[in-house]
Design a protein that fits this description.
The chain is of the alpha/beta class and 333 residues long. Helices cover 41% and strands 15% of the residues. It folds into 3 domains: 105 residues, Rossmann fold (3-Layer(aba) Sandwich); 100 residues, NadA-like (Rossmann fold), CATH 3.40.50; 90 residues, 3-Layer(aba) Sandwich (Rossmann fold), CATH 3.40.50. Bound molecules: (~{Z})-2-methylbut-2-enedioic acid (CIZ).
């Protein structure tokens, strides 16, 4: 987008303008983190939506499905999970003998908070014949009450894999509606939660940015609303977006409808292409404040002081683990 555009689309902010900090200080923190991780036998995992400086220092980055697998395969005795609380919980559920640390207690998830165990119990009473499929963006107590979990990378395959034709999908209504459109032969009842970051984007926002980049390929996350997904050439999880870019070798520009940190990551992976956040503005609508609660200082402190340890209620452990393990046995879409 040119700087002198008359458009209402906010001018994009260069990723390096987002509070990346003084480069010397960033390097110093990253070196300290590497030294502490080696000393404490810690594996550092970072989600695709984490600040770029945090992702740069992680042993592995990825989506929640990929990071769950890394957590399971970890040889280290402790895992520092740079993501949000439900992701660290999943790592702990799958690795009950390891110490799992979440560097900030403020790293919650409003989508996970949109459904409680009590509300799921009453939904199950209303739909007693339905198999419960729960998005991993949920608490351990909700997972424990579910038949199987899914991520955005395998939600369609999970629903297809079930014997039951009646599904109760929780808690993300946009992902649930996307799945229902892909699997029309099943009766999918959908809970009314949403990720505000993705749900904030409207087709009209994307349409305006598309006017600036008429040739661009649009890749959208299935947590976006249907009016956004209808404008997309590809709908996939963050990890699926790498392959989606490769499916369009002729394209030079991509509009990406997901959290901006992942757009930064795609840009680094494919430096010869141009990636634009679908609302035209890094850090505007497609910004997850919870994912940005963890900076390098929090990771240093977490390693130094062994905080904040994630624990699972004993009564949730087995049920939540069974739901996650069924999910892990299902391939990506
Ligand atoms: O499953 C995840 O990690 C989330 C929340 C998004 C994605 O597509 O990676």
């Amino acid at each position: 987008m040119s700087a002198d555009t008359q458009s209402n689309v906010p001018a994009p902010i260069a990723p390096e303008a987002y509070p990346a900090g003084d480069p010397a200080e960033v390097r110093e923190h990253q070196e300290r983190i590497r030294a502490l991780a080696a000393e404490k036998n810690a594996l550092i995992l970072a989600h695709n939506y984490q600040l770029p400086a945090v992702q740069d220092v992680a042993h592995f980055t990825g989506d929640s499905l990929g990071l769950s697998v890394q957590a399971q395969e970890a040889e280290q005795s402790r895992i520092v999970f740079c993501g949000v609380h439900f992701m660290a919980e999943s790592a702990k559920i799958l690795n009950p003998d390891k110490t799992v640390l979440l560097p900030s207690l403020a790293a919650g998830c409003s989508l996970a908070d949109s459904i409680t165990a009590e509300s799921l119990v009453s939904w199950k009473e209303r739909y007693p014949d339905h198999a419960v499929v729960t998005y991993v963006n949920s608490t351990a107590s909700v997972k424990a009450l579910s038949d199987i979990c899914c991520t955005s990378a395998n939600a369609v395959s999970v629903v297809r894999s079930l014997d039951s034709d009646k599904i109760l999908f929780t808690p993300d209504r946009n992902l649930g509606a996307w799945v229902r459109r892909q699997v029309p032969e099943k009766d999918v009842v959908i809970y009314d939660g949403a990720c505000p970051t993705h749900d904030n984007l409207r087709g009209a926002n994307l349409d305006e940015v598309q006017g600036e980049y008429p040739e661009a390929i649009v890749i959208a996350h299935p947590e976006c609303r249907e009016d956004v997904l209808q404008l997309a050439d590809e709908v996939c999880s963050t990890t699926g977006m790498f392959d989606a870019v490769r499916r369009h070798p002729e394209a030079s520009t991509f509009l990406i409808a997901t959290e901006w940190a992942h757009v930064d990551k795609l840009q680094k992976e494919f430096p010869e292409k141009t990636f634009v956040v679908a609302d035209g503005c890094i850090g505007c609508r497609l910004h997850c404040p919870y994912m940005k609660m963890i900076g390098l200082e929090q990771v240093v402190r977490s390693l130094e002081e062994d905080i904040f340890e994630v624990t699972i209620r004993p009564e949730d452990q087995d049920g939540a683990r069974a739901s996650l393990e069924r999910m892990l046995a299902t391939p990506r879409d």
